[in-house]
Design a protein that fits this description.
The complex is a heterodimer of chains A (249) and B (768). Chain A has 249 residues and is of the alpha/beta class. Chain A is built from eight helices and ten strands. In chain B, helix 7 packs parallel to helix 18 and helix 13 (415-443) packs across helix 20 (679-718). Classes of the chains: A alpha/beta (249), B alpha+beta (768).
Chain lengths: 249, 768
């Protein structure tokens, strides 16, 4: 498999001088196409910072990030945004929907310019995706008229509607109940089976157990990782918890 | 704790706080200045008119005068306290020279008089009664201030030399709105020049009770006394004296009002943004048991400080600078005797501004009462009402790009937020366009029609009819003249009702050649028809088709009213008819003429001036400029100031508003950035919205300036005799320059205000 995401020696600090915190300390990582990767670590370990850095949504103090061999941080803001729109999708812990649009317009918004001449095809595609995500019938609803789980599924639909190669998730199930979480994770697995590379950040072992690669972070550095192939869910959970315990996370 | 809250609040919003402070300061400054001017003006004018002993009733009269009959009337009338008749010698400018040069000021009737014995005194600049020696002359103050004449000049009237000793304060004729100006000379000098002018009489009465003026006026009319001239009362004299500074008061008050409205909008905008930002925090404060009054106090604290400082500095500024505004009052009327009251009024005005600001904020913060802690903490939803629209869907529209759609969508879903901005833009457009509309209307050729002059190119006024026959034949045979009309101005008695009689100025001639502006009906065509000026028709309560009875050569003759027209000459009360009357005396004769093309009007008029020395010859545009020149100049300056103010206000508000929107929208901006919207797209969202709003606001502002503005201006000039004023707008300015200017400013302001979008990082606002 080819490497789709590559970070080389990335460093990111917050604050100034005495109050400086190192969020990412000389981190290097490579993720192959169609991998389902989970990044775990305690609060403040730098996992979300890593996700934002890999998605080109932050600035770096040092290092570089390549997506399909293209250096993200050498592009200007507008080109990065455009690149992100075409190649990546993002899902955050709390749904990030715009209150001035209904659910279906929210889902279609980033992809609309690419389907200017074939809106009906885009609408059809979005509705199919909504059906797959189990939120059909909410198209015309305001974002305040659906549940948190439904809103998160709509966020995923928006993130994948334009068919990105990579889907980033920052604690995507963090604000959901266990039933909704399972349904979202099922959806991620489904997308991964269809060829999408998925990179999640979580502190929940159950979520990481769905991935086939788990990276452990501590104090802004990559500490260790686990690879899964055919292990059942329970075994994965035991191994993840064991590793966390070994690392003192 | 409040100190800390204020400090943090000010630190976080320096630009907005400073702007609010400046606005409140200006509002306080202007309102305090209005109070100072109003109190001083009232006091100075009252004191001055007391010193002058201004008559309560004044009848100007030209022609024979029966002094014995008048004295008998005055002695027998129960209302009269004192009575006098003063001569007023009208002298043509052509008979006056200054330092050997011809006197140029001929748009006014220049008259000479001596000092009154009992009342209506002419005063010096210390409000002392002046008694000139022989050979000395005192000039109207307005000529001194305009530089027409100055102390030390040598004036020659009909060969008699006078030295200008100073200027006089004249309660009756100082104002440029009064068409006559009074010079003061020694009684024996008056006798020497008497033969050169036309003598008029000022028949003046002081009443025991000024409130009985209407009763006295009725007595005077019923007694059939001399009244061949205008009638002026104490209240009109006071109004004319106060008008110039009164207009300044009105303008300053209007600006203060606008500024305070803009301040309110600004405060509303900033407070809304802040409350929305801190929605959850307010919920938490309520949840932990903090009382609403305390929460309100926290939000009000910063504004209380800004309002108190702004009001105080505004007051200080007005006390320091009010001298500039009082210069004119001091010069024309003297010092006020109520200086302390003026300062107290200024303090009250300033305190009023502070109180109004605090009251506005307190009422605005009432909305926090409805906020439940649960709703605030759970939803954290902003209160600008942003929610999707039922019919305006991205997926259902074909016209707009995604960026333009989103820009429009933001406006439509947050109408309340944008309402304030639109309101300010409408005010700015209105302020920008209205003065220009007034100026272009006054500068247009059509405006001459409101002056009762018709659309001629030149005008001549002859005192009598002596040279008329000669002039008539000359005009008829002059190949350069295309059209001309001769108008005879006479004064006729008419029946007010079955018993009462009054007098009216009637212009006789052909009124179709140079038509004036008829607001109803048409010019008289037959001998039994008459048209009335708007003010005349209003005061007599006459309409088209009604009958008016004139007394012509002791014969009552009925006339049908065919038209009502605008006229600001002769106090706005005139009439027009076509019948001939060679028996009654003429007050004056005027000629209006148009020349053929390629004729130099000024050269032609010069030849008339040389041929008819007793005639006043005017190019009509020059005449208009002489009468309205200074007013037009003031309006032009106001127009330029209004444009600068509007542009400044628009830029400032756009900058602040867009800046606040960007801050408020940080999270949404992060979301849009995270899904791949570029900075350029995000700029487009704001710019498309702003440009759309400024276009809509311009349309509203332009329509309002042409409708409401026209009505306001119309109501103001109606008192002068102009009915149904129609704006003559400068199309290139209103439809091209002003909109382009406003759109460019809003575009520039939005661009500037959205620069910080580039600095918004997705990670800063989305990371949990």
């Amino acid at each position: 498999m080819t490497t789709i995401i590559e970070a080389r020696n990335i460093t990111k600090t917050f604050g100034q001088e005495k109050n400086q915190t190192v969020a990412l300390n000389n981190v290097s990582i490579a993720i192959k196409a169609n991998e389902f990767v989970s990044v775990m670590g305690p609060s403040g370990s730098g996992k979300s910072t890593l996700l934002f850095a890999l998605g080109g949504m932050d600035t770096l103090d040092e290092g570089c990030v390549y997506i399909n061999g293209v250096s993200l941080y050498e592009m200007d803001d507008n080109r990065v945004a455009d690149f992100r729109r075409k190649n990546m999708g993002f899902v955050f812990q709390n749904p990030t929907m715009l209150p001035s649009l209904d659910i279906l317009d929210n889902i279609m918004l980033p992809s609309f310019e690419d389907y200017k001449n074939d809106k009906s095809a885009l609408t059809q595609k979005a509705q199919n995706l909504m059906k797959l995500a189990g939120i059909e019938g909410t198209e015309n609803r305001k974002i305040t008229e659906v549940s948190g789980g439904q809103l998160q599924r709509a966020s995923i639909c928006r993130a994948v509607l334009h068919g990105p190669e990579i889907l980033f998730g920052d604690e995507p199930t963090g604000a959901l109940n266990s039933k909704s979480s399972e349904e979202i994770l099922d959806l991620f697995e489904e997308l991964n089976k269809n060829g999408m590379t998925i990179l999640l950040v979580t502190h929940d072992a159950k979520v990481s157990a769905r991935a086939n690669r788990v990276i452990f972070m501590k104090d802004g550095a990559l500490e260790s990782e686990l690879y899964f192939e055919n292990e059942d869910h329970q075994t994965r959970l035991v191994l993840i918890n064991q590793k966390m315990s070994d690392l003192g996370i | 704790m409040l100190k800390k809250i204020i400090q943090n609040d000010l630190k976080g919003s320096k630009l907005v706080s400073l702007t609010t402070f400046v606005f409140i300061l200006f509002a306080s400054f202007l309102l305090s200045t209005v109070a100072i001017i109003a109190v001083n003006l009232n006091s100075s004018v009252n004191l001055f008119m007391e010193n002058v002993k201004t008559p309560h009733f004044l009848q100007m009269h030209m022609g024979d005068f029966d002094s014995e009959r008048m004295r008998h009337f005055a002695q027998s009338n129960e209302h009269v306290l004192d009575y006098q008749t003063m001569p007023f010698l009208n002298v043509d400018a052509s008979d006056i020279s200054v330092n050997g040069e011809r006197f140029t000021e001929n748009s006014q009737d220049n008259g000479f008089s001596w000092q009154s014995e009992n009342f209506d005194f002419l005063l010096d600049l210390d409000n002392k009664i002046i008694y000139p020696n022989e050979g000395e002359i005192y000039i109207p103050l307005v000529y001194d201030t305009n530089g027409v004449l100055k102390t030390g000049d040598r004036m020659t009237i009909s060969g008699l030399d006078f030295t200008v000793k100073g200027a006089i304060r004249d309660a009756q004729m100082s104002s440029m709105l009064a068409s006559s100006k009074r010079f003061l000379i020694h009684p024996s000098d008056y006798e020497k020049i008497r033969s050169v002018g036309r003598e008029e009489f000022l028949i003046e009465f002081l009443l025991k009770d000024p409130a009985s003026i209407n009763l006295f006026q009725g007595d005077y009319a019923n007694a059939n006394l001399e009244s061949n001239g205008p009638t002026i009362t104490y209240s009109i004299i006071k109004l004319m004296n106060s008008l110039t500074d009164g207009i300044i008061i009105a303008i300053l008050f209007l600006i203060a009002f606008l500024i305070i409205i803009v301040s309110f909008l600004l405060i509303r905008l900033t407070l809304t943004a802040k409350i929305e930002d801190e929605y959850k925090t307010i919920g938490v404060l309520k949840a932990i048991g903090m009382q609403l009054s305390m929460i309100k106090k926290m939000y009000r604290a910063k504004y209380a400080l800004i309002a108190s400082l702004g009001s105080a500095f505004g007051l200080i500024l007005s006390l320091v600078l009010s001298g500039f505004f009082l210069q004119n009052i001091r010069l024309f009327f003297g010092e006020s005797e109520h200086k302390a009251l003026a300062i107290i009024s200024a303090v009250i005005a300033s305190a009023f501004i502070f109180a109004v600001v605090i009251l506005f904020i307190t009422l605005f913060l009432q909305r926090l009462k409805k906020l439940t802690p649960a709703a605030a903490i759970n939803t954290g939803i902003v209160s600008d009402g942003a929610s999707s629209l039922k019919h305006f869907k991205l997926r259902k529209q074909n016209l707009l790009s995604t960026d333009l759609f989103y820009g429009m969508n933001l406006i439509l879903t947050r109408k309340k937020t944008y309402f304030t901005f639109v309101l300010i833009l409408i005010i700015a457009s209105f302020v920008m366009i209205l003065p220009n509309n007034i100026y272009s209307t006054m500068a247009s050729d059509k405006f001459i029609s409101y002056m009762g002059l018709g659309n001629g190119q030149a005008m001549m006024i002859l005192a009598g009819k002596d040279s008329l026959n000669d002039l008539n034949s000359r005009l008829e045979n002059d190949p350069d003249i295309e059209t001309y009309a001769i108008y005879d101005h006479k004064s006729y008695e008419f029946m007010l009702d079955e018993n009462a009689i009054s007098k009216m100025w009637v212009t006789l001639g052909n009124h179709h050649l140079f038509p004036v502006l008829y607001t109803a009906g048409h010019a008289p065509e037959h001998d039994n028809e008459i048209a009335l000026s708007f003010l005349n028709a209003s005061s007599l309560d006459k309409k088209i088709g009604d009958t008016l009875t004139l007394i012509i050569n002791q014969q009552k003759t009925d006339f049908v009213i065919t038209g009502i027209y605008s006229d600001i000459t002769n106090g706005g009360k005139t009439a027009r008819a076509t019948f001939s009357d060679n028996l009654s005396d003429s007050l004056s004769t005027s000629l209006v003429m148009n020349f053929r093309k390629d004729i130099s009007i000024d050269e032609k008029l010069k030849s008339f001036e040389q041929a008819y020395l007793n005639a006043k010859v005017y190019n009509i545009k020059t005449y208009r400029d002489a009468v309205f020149g200074s007013t037009m100049n003031n309006i032009k300056i106001s127009s330029v100031i209004a444009i600068i103010l509007s542009v400044g206000l628009t830029l400032l508000i756009t900058l602040l508003f867009v800046n606040m929107l960007v801050v408020k929208d940080r999270r949404n901006t992060s979301i849009l950035k995270s899904v791949g919207f570029t900075n350029k797209s995000l700029h487009t969202h704001y710019i498309s919205g702003s440009v759309l709003l400024v276009i809509v606001s311009m349309i509203f502002g332009t329509v309002l300036a042409s409708t409401l503005g026209q009505s306001i201006t119309g109501a103001f000039v109606q008192a002068m005799g102009v009915a149904n004023l129609k704006f003559n707008i400068d199309k290139s300015f209103v439809f091209f320059i002003a909109p382009i200017c406003m759109v460019a400013i809003v575009y520039f302001g939005t661009n500037l205000g959205t620069r910080s979008i580039q600095k918004i990082k997705v990670s800063d606002y989305i990371r949990e």
